[in-house]
Structure formats: C-alpha cells, structure tokens
Amino acid sequence: MKSFKKLALTAMMTGVLAFTAACGAQGTESSKDQAGAEAKQLQGEIKIDGSSTVFPIMEAVVEEYGMTQPGVKVSVSSSGTGGGFEAFIAGETELSNASRPIKDEEKAALEEEGIDYTEIQLAFDGLSVVVNKDNDWVDHLTIDELKKIWVEDGTVKKWSDIRPEWPEEEIKLYSPGTDSGTFDYFDEVILDGQPIVEKATLSEDDNTLVQGVQGGKYSIGYFGYAYYAENKDTLKIVPIDGGNGPVEPTNETIESGEYAPLSRPLFTYVKNSAIKDQEEVYDFMKFLLENAATLSEDVGYVQLPEEEYTKQLETLETLK
C-alpha cells in the first residue's frame, strides 16, 4: 500500500479535498475490490469536517476508497474539532473528525436536533512539543515548565525565565486555535483552564504552526505527532517529563501510554441515520475500519490493537 505521508501533511488543512469519479462508474456496475471479490459500485456523496489532526488519516482513507468506489464523492474539510461538531449538529456532514472526545454541550445539542451518533476511535496520537532545529539548550521540559511557558501571567516570556542558564530571549509561541481539539486537550492537561499567552500565534492549520517554529530560533509549538514525523528533519522534538523522567513520543511510548500525559486517542463520529439510510456511508465506514490501522501508521500515527477495530466493525453491523 502506498504511503500518504507527503500528500497528507503538505495539503492545506483549510481546503476541501474532494475525490470524485474518475472512471465514470454507474449504478450497479461491478469491479474488483482489494480482496479480488466483485464489489457493487455505489453512487452518493459524503461530507466530513473536523479535526486537522485527524485530517491526514481521513485523507488517506478517502484516497484509497476512491479507487474502489469512484462513484462516491467524499469531501474532507478541517475546520477544527469544534468547527466540525458545529457542522455535524447543523446537519451539514455525515462524519465529524475529533482529536478529543465529544463535549457534554455538543452531546446535548445533538440530542436536541434528534441526531443519534456513534463514536469511532481511529488511532493514537502523541501531542508533540517542538522547538526550532537550532535550539541547542532545551533537552526536555517538565509539565510545570510547560505551564510556565504557555500560561498568560502578564509578563513577556523569555527562555531564561524557565531556566536561568537559557537565553535571555523572548519565546515565540505557536498553538492550535481554540476550535481545535488539540488546543482543548492541551488546555485540559497543561493550561488547566488558565488563559494561554496572549502573544501566542494560534492557527487551525497545523502546517502554519510547523512553519512558524521552523522560522524562528526561539520558537516553540505543539501539534499532532504526524506533523512532527513529517517534518522531523527541520524540527527538534522535546521529551516531556510527566513525573517519571523525560520521555520522547514514539510509536512505542504513545501506544504504551508511557508518553504521559500527552498521549491521546483520535476519533471520528458518524450519524447513525446515515449508516442506515445511505448505503455509501455504511460502505465507507466499513472500509475505514478495515484500513484505519495501516493508513494511520502510513501518515505517522499509532494504530489501535486489532481487536478494537474488530469490535467497532461489529458495532457498525448493528447500525445497518
């Protein structure tokens, strides 16, 4: 299976990627699927929005799915987890990607609209803290030091404020925007609900954050592990000491939970009515769960245990 790393992570996150019929497949025509069996050719449209962190996984899935079902148009946007849920609640999408679990207020809004949904876990991510490649002073950061860097306290933050031996230079900060599930997660485990530094540059586009850290020696930022993995030659990862010594995010430390507290699951949410009433949505979800493990790894995330995908496939069958 081809790698999607370069394609997935250099695409503009705010754009809409639509994969449409290339072969003019019609109605009930059949073609060979990946297993060699005859596959009914479907028609339809599926709209997906949400997390920019989950975007690379979904983009790779949509690309592969388009090879087996070219008559199904699947569009993927990345307005952030919060923005995705807004569209989901408004009835504008069938799937909503999220880098955090759905909030109580979002659940209540969906209930008010009469929308039943199912949570699907896709992979694991290790939220990655990075600095400029020329930064030769940071060897690791503790949770308390992260808080000191990122929480607004009315002062201009300098590296020497974190450790006296570090440069007396202002820290340039790059963070996902407040509609991002990654921001929500960082807010929960690092900021602890306190305001983020006012001078921080916030963006829903993770590539903007990557470029910001790449462009300044005194910069620091954070985003999903896949974006670090794609740019590791031009960024420096920061091991995080969550209380048991510094740990660098890797596939192994993320999956084991050793990279704490910044390891987290990634999700998509699907409308139950779409699975039941739209054959193409059921078919896409089945394809997603059958291929999420491989494609998540392809774009730089960490797959779930195989039994988790199997369990979710069994749940999918009950929703038909």
Automatic annotation (TrEMBL):
<comment type="subunit">
    <text>The complex is composed of two ATP-binding proteins (PstB), two transmembrane proteins (PstC and PstA) and a solute-binding protein (PstS).</text>
</comment>
<keyword id="KW-0732">Signal</keyword>
<keyword id="KW-0564">Palmitate</keyword>
<keyword id="KW-0813">Transport</keyword>
<comment type="function">
    <text>Involved in the system for phosphate transport across the cytoplasmic membrane.</text>
</comment>
<comment type="similarity">
    <text>Belongs to the PstS family.</text>
</comment>
<dbReference type="InterPro" id="IPR024370">
    <property type="entry name" value="PBP_domain"/>
</dbReference>
<dbReference type="InterPro" id="IPR011862">
    <property type="entry name" value="Phos-bd"/>
</dbReference>
<dbReference type="Pfam" id="PF12849">
    <property type="entry name" value="PBP_like_2"/>
</dbReference>
<keyword id="KW-0472">Membrane</keyword>
<feature type="domain" description="PBP">
    <location>
        <begin position="37"/>
        <end position="290"/>
    </location>
</feature>
<dbReference type="InterPro" id="IPR050811">
    <property type="entry name" value="Phosphate_ABC_transporter"/>
</dbReference>
<keyword id="KW-0449">Lipoprotein</keyword>
<comment type="function">
    <text>Part of the ABC transporter complex PstSACB involved in phosphate import.</text>
</comment>
<keyword id="KW-1003">Cell membrane</keyword>
<feature type="signal peptide">
    <location>
        <begin position="1"/>
        <end position="24"/>
    </location>
</feature>
<keyword id="KW-0592">Phosphate transport</keyword>
<protein>
    <recommendedName>
        <fullName>Phosphate-binding protein</fullName>
    </recommendedName>
</protein>
